[in-house]
């Protein structure tokens, strides 16, 4: 019965690197069992000006970890007197996710831009492994699109190609996965800033 | 309590038949299921009760002049080949390599520990570095102690190296079981590759294989594993340790032979 189920972001999340930044995307459905608790969730959570995380798994767990990391990063960047590295943010996530691996249900993608290495995507799956990838996908809906992504991904895509790639992947997953749906939230993170878009209803590919 | 709920355990806080017993000292008598996170947060840090992203077999073989390790480059999330570019072979120092199978988050943790140890040792600047045998012994103690606290590092590790002119190949697993042999394999490799490796070694007991023979044998074993292990992948790495040092090759791709498909 749905009142006994934990609130989870059964999800599809994606992030892709391009030269100059990253494109990230997520669906907007939060479920408690089969009931959709929030149909317009924002799963793209900023942890710093140019660093975002895409959250999948338990909504509570990921929000708690993301808040903690955002705090740590804010402190760290004040001490550093420069924008923090994406790798640092990813490492902070990994430390929490690995330390409490038996208590958390969290699959996180950390993506952003920093002056040192440009756009980067790191994935911290359940278990607390840290890995950098040219593109990453996560959440329950990701299972349905591995084939599509393997067939379609090209290294060296431009920003708009990445946005199209992410939007198409998410749309396909959202159709097939009952735990993903709603609108597609996209964000492009570059040196200039963060540009957010929402693809809804008829805008979906 | 609702009607029809299971009766309370026979005695509170003690072992239950068929269940993993977590001693009260660890703060929990029954671990809360993943995702609910209720109760006092007294689980030890990094407790691994079930592996998540895992690596499959690692193979090791001594040859005349050194030792060789081989492993594929995939991290599996259950049956999904999720991360296809992960390196499971680690160069510890100029005389030792380590290959791990099992949970890769624990392997990353182990990698960090080892890298820090090696740095600390270099800082001492006394010309000494960890020998493969020393590392094997250290790792055995670490893994056994973690197992004894019911907080294992869920890995099976092969350590290979050449030190003082002697080659070394050792095995340690998550329970702290440790041994050495001229040929070793973890995971599926223990069933499929080890017999092949041993047959080759026993064919000519007077000598170890040459480097080329060893390399060819390991590739043959990796091919067999690719045919028969559902969690394997056809990209792999090879690490060779000799007197001269460590060479890490990869990622290389296996050529698979499917001719029998036409005959069947």
From TrEMBL, chain A:
InterPro entries: Ntn_hydrolases_N, Pept_T1A_subB, Proteasome_bsu_CS, Proteasome_sua/b, Proteasome_suB-type. Its main location: cytoplasm. The active site is at 11 (nucleophile). It is found in: Cytoplasm; Nucleus. Signal peptide: none annotated. It catalyses: Cleavage of peptide bonds with very broad specificity. Gene3D superfamilies: Glutamine Phosphoribosylpyrophosphate, subunit 1, domain 1. Pfam families: Proteasome. Keywords: Cytoplasm, Hydrolase, Nucleus, Protease, Proteasome, Threonine protease, Zymogen. One of its GO terms (molecular function) is threonine-type endopeptidase activity. SUPFAM superfamilies: N-terminal nucleophile aminohydrolases (Ntn hydrolases). CDD domains: proteasome_beta_type_6. GO terms for biological process: proteolysis involved in protein catabolic process. Coiled coil: none annotated. Component of the proteasome, a multicatalytic proteinase complex which is characterized by its ability to cleave peptides with Arg, Phe, Tyr, Leu, and Glu adjacent to the leaving group at neutral or slightly basic pH. The proteasome has an ATP-dependent proteolytic activity. Belongs to the peptidase T1B family. Component of the proteasome complex. This is Proteasome subunit beta. It comes from Melospiza melodia (Song sparrow).
From TrEMBL, chain B:
Its main location: nucleus. It comes from the Eukaryota. Gene3D superfamilies: Glutamine Phosphoribosylpyrophosphate, subunit 1, domain 1. GO terms for biological process: proteolysis involved in protein catabolic process. One of its GO terms (cellular component) is nucleus. Keywords: Cytoplasm, Nucleus, Proteasome. PROSITE patterns: PROTEASOME_BETA_1, PROTEASOME_BETA_2. Pfam families: Proteasome. Transmembrane segments: none annotated. SUPFAM superfamilies: N-terminal nucleophile aminohydrolases (Ntn hydrolases). The keyword Nucleus applies. The keyword RNA-binding does not apply. It is found in: Nucleus. This is Proteasome subunit beta type-4. It comes from Melospiza melodia.
